[in-house]
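**Backbone shape codes:**
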Amino acid sequence: MKKNVPATPYADGPRSNDVRAGTAPIDDIDRILLDQLSRDARTPNNALAALAGIAPSTCLGRVRSLIDRGVIRGFHADIDPATLGRDLQAMIAVCVQANARQHLGQLAEQLATLGEVLNVYFIAGADDYLIHVATGSSEELRRFVLDHLSAHPAVASTETILIFEHVRPRLRAPQAEPPSGR
């Protein structure tokens, strides 16, 4: 189920990942479901239900609710870019021109359409974006930076950081702190 959600960080209204805006709180059963799905998103519904100690129909309803509320943002395959011939990865910090700040969302959308781009992060600090890219060679990386970033009129500067190795932690659902007063 795909929601119609604004794509830019400046669009009006809550985004699909904005779980703070008027959603029901996450309870212990939800935490069990989220923990297991973060470990293995392909866990069958009946196995999820058994882990949480609830009926499969209740489990299905809860997972659908977590999706509808934007708590679960999606299910995806984590594909190693090297298997697709893109074994050089980098993080590129991008600082946008001061006079182009009103176009930040458009730049992010534009970058997200490029084949080399794995992730686009809108960040706080000296830079505006952190772009995670994967290319097949240093020449392709150089060309990406020159053609899509340095040549872009909104971009003031970039800094490219090569990724030598990515060690993925065992994924777990983020744990919210229990309410005070317990």
Summary: DSSP finds five helices and four strands in the chain. The helical segments are 28-39, 45-52, 56-68, 104-112, 138-150. The first strand starts at residue 88 and ends at 96.
